[in-house]
Amino acid sequence: MLARIILAAALIASVVLGPVRPVLAQEQPDIIILFDQSGSVGKHDPKLASKAWLLTFLKTFDNPYKIEIVGFDEALYRHLAIDRDTATDINAVNRAIDGIETVGKATDLEMPFRYLLNYAKPSTKLAVIISDGEPEIWDAKLGYLSKEVQADPRYDDLNRQYQQMKDAGVSKRKRFEKLGALYHARNIDLIEGQMPGIAKLIGDRLIIWDLSGTSYYLKTWAKAAGAQYLPMRVAAQENPVEQLQKAMTALQQHSSAIVKEALPDDHEHRAAIALTTIPEIAAKVQPREQPAPKPLSPPIETRMAEPVAPQLVARADTQTSQSPIWGIVLVLLGGVIGALIVYRRRATAKAEPAVPVDLASQYIDAKVKGALDDAEKLRRKLLIAESEAVKVERRFSLRVAVPTGAMEIQWISADGEKRETAAINLSMHGVKFETHGAEVKAVTKIICPNMDVVLGVKKFQEIRRDGSRSVALLIEFENNLDDWMRWVEIITRIDQIATKP
């Protein structure tokens, strides 16, 4: 009992925000959990997800592990260290994690990868990064630029421009309009530059949990780092407890293969039990049935087994006993399949038959996906190039005139009234539309009736008012990558399409 009291006190005392300090050799963790603790994450809750996974891991796996919990926003914070060799007070873990503040004003996604490069070792068994995958080192709404970035020599040229504009009395909005895209691009380049090192150090033992389920960045970086990408959405508006239960099961299975410890038969039940220890969601957890105990096998004659080469531990639900007859069947089946492959290749060379529809569909889907990924990269480069090439006034100038009736903007005024008015002109960055002097609270949709296109706007910023008109910077669409492709098409074709009578 005394040991538990001391451990609980130590766990709570360990919640101290501060800079990262070196890890001693004897303190080297086996498991590292890094979660996004910035206040900009919004409807996703990485702290809750991190706590749920930590408690599930402790309930699921029996081998001794040293586990470390690290938070990040614009900096890194080592919050909690647990030694699985000792009795772990779950209530103390809950209290310790609940005490972590998630009020960061910026999200520098370089931080978790930098931590792994500095502190992960060949002995590290597993690392998990939990985030919604939205890098934001400069919050335009708050006008806040990461202090870590301002002190980082890798941003020296941009920081000099920022300071000069600040000393000259240039507003926060104007500073962001000129330098925001350049800071963002530098940040992304620095992150991508770390991927080869991550791949070499810990790539196949890293899981990147994308809480949004749609992050282009996390998906791209996971591929470059050789890590496992898990797009498991956990949003407050979408029954997060049910989503957490599904995510815990997926993480149990992936982690089992990585740490080479077989899952217990009742692992889903254990995950549910772990979630019931979290006070804020305990009442909503759906219990899982415990598997019935396996019947005892009849006694058989035992004999000394021949030595075999060690194998990776497979998932518990996929292990089956093998007999020699199955080996013979597999060999014969492999021979038949090989003969069929050779026969088909020869037949194809002679007759050149048409590609099956399903294979053609898969091929086309793969090509389209590749083209969309390339288009997103190109769009980012175009934004960067334009930001460097033109001044602020020209960067946001709207160049393509919209014919009458070709585009309507659906928006909500400050008094909550839904309105729909005509677009006047547009560019790669935004759109100017008629507001009749009303203040714009939100832009919801962009409609092009002649092109049968409706784009849902997820994130925007009103950057200028021009008399009775408004200029909106388009930041994110609902179907972000696909809609940006449509937006480029609209820009190139809208002044060529005749309006309907």
Automatic annotation (TrEMBL):
InterPro entries: VWF_A, vWFA_dom_sf. It comes from the Bacteria. The chain crosses the membrane at residues 325-343. Keywords: Coiled coil, Membrane, Transmembrane, Transmembrane helix. This is VWFA domain-containing protein. SUPFAM superfamilies: vWA-like (SSF53300). Residues 30-171 form the VWFA domain. It comes from Paramagnetospirillum caucaseum. Residues 368-395 form a coiled coil.
